[in-house]
Specification:
mainly alpha; 4 helices; transmembrane; Transmembrane protein 14C; transmembrane helix; TMEM14; membrane
Length: 110
Amino acid sequence: MALDVLGYIYAATVAAGGVMGYVKAGSIPSLGAGLAFGAILGVGAHFNSQNPPKPLLQFGTSLVLAGIMGSRWSKSGKMMPAGLICVLSCAALIRNVFVYNKYLPIPGRQ
């Protein structure tokens, strides 16, 4: 399987968002969450790059991020950073479903 470049870019974007939150607002929780989620997504991109790919970690992490940031986006109405991460996470979810569909553990499938 080819290297999951988009997965690594997504992971780096999430981590960079946490660093930017710390630099701009001094938010240590933003730094911690951004680096933690970025690292988990990076491991997920590594798993997607294996043969056969294992997309469940990146899929689950993207689902959690989409939910958390979607909730924050709906409360604040601000596109940055919550809206951007929500949109990127939803795009990552859709990509995982289309690209790695046959590797996802779907109940009832053999």
